[in-house]
Design goal:
The complex is a heterodimer of chains A (54) and B (254). In chain A, 83% of the residues lie in helices and 0% in strands. Chain A is rod-shaped. Chain B is mainly α. In chain B, α2 packs antiparallel against α3, α2 runs parallel beside α7 and α3 packs antiparallel against α7. Classes of the chains: A mainly alpha (54), B mainly alpha (254). Chains A and B meet through α1 of A and α2, α3 and α7 of B.
């Protein structure tokens, strides 16, 4: 017995794409933010040391 | 390979490569989603549900491929002690976990209208769930042992042992023929999928590979930056202490 009618398939497809988009979007944004934050911290530390040295 | 295992060289190389990879990732994603939603024909049996295949199947491939890469990086770390191998392995785990979760969730969404159930303790589904738990266990072990000097060695051994699950995932559909369908692309006698469905499938796979490459490079760059910062802090502490020893009368480090 089919529990889901063919006209309802579109809702399942939409749900699958939204979940995938949110997961991958989250993955991309998190990785980008982490990289940006840490490289900026290293850069500011380097500048600070440079300032102190001179 | 040794030439590229240098973190400074990696940072330089990745900086030049990243913009191209990001552009490629965006283009492949746009093309993949377009082909999957509008370019692919409707399946004669599954109807519109076939479109879930384009997000589910490449995610399943990525889940296993990333774990295989993690095992290779762990072997390199154990045998050659490359400084970048640990950084790469550590960066791969969360990405692999996300792809595994996407595979499980979209598989469940695909399963309900086609099989009549969200979940079954079928060989393939269970072994992929085990893969997710291995990824999570790997990340937990890293954060638990972070301070220990032998952490990379322990975590690498755990990752290599976890690799036993990969052939189980691959052959589960042949060993236990229950609910999940057998292999339809990499199988004897050629692919069982219509050529018109191959283009969206492989375009999405390419997009996923580029997402993996971009996010891994970002994570590795962040990890290297973090280590650099820790080294700077340790150097500052050492300098302060040595100054404190040289000038104890000042009461504070210079």
């Amino acid at each position: 017995m089919n529990l889901v009618q063919p006209e309802q398939h579109i809702y399942f497809v939409t749900a699958a794409y939204i979940i995938t988009a949110l997961s991958l979007g989250g993955l991309i944004i998190t990785a980008w933010m982490i990289a940006r934050t840490w490289t900026a911290r290293v850069e500011s530390q380097r500048l600070e040391r440079h300032k102190n040295d001179s | 390979m040794h030439r590229f295992a240098n973190p400074s060289r990696f940072l330089r190389l990745s900086e030049n490569l990243l913009p191209w990879l990001v552009v490629g990732m965006i283009l492949a994603l746009i093309a993949g989603v377009y082909l999957a939603l509008f370019g692919s024909p409707v399946d004669y049996r599954q109807g519109e549900m076939v479109r879930v295949m384009y997000v589910h199947v490449p995610a399943a491939w990525m889940a296993s491929a990333i774990y295989l890469s993690l095992v290779i990086a762990s072997i390199i770390s154990l045998v050659w002690r490359h400084p970048l191998a640990d950084v790469a392995a550590r960066g791969m785990a969360p990405i692999g976990a996300v792809f595994t979760a996407i595979c499980l969730i979209t598989g469940s969404i695909w399963g309900y209208p086609t099989w009549g159930t969200w979940w079954a303790w079928d060989g393939r589904m269970t072994s992929v769930l085990v893969l997710l738990s291995i990824y999570l266990g790997y990340m937990a072990l890293w954060s638990a042992l972070e301070e220990r000097a032998n952490a990379p060695k322990i975590v690498a051994i755990m990752a290599i042992v976890g690799g036993i699950n990969l052939p189980i995932i691959k052959f589960s559909v042949d060993w236990w023929q229950t609910l999940h369908q057998p292999a339809s692309i990499l199988r004897k006698g050629g692919s069982a999928i219509a050529p018109s469905m191959m283009a969206p499938l492989f375009t999405m796979w390419l997009a996923y590979i580029l997402i993996f490459a971009v996010t891994l490079i970002w994570r590795m760059r962040a990890d290297i930056a973090q280590q650099k910062l820790q080294a700077m802090a340790a150097r500052n502490t050492n300098t302060s202490q040595s100054h404190a020893i040289l000038h104890p009368s000042t009461g504070s480090a210079l």
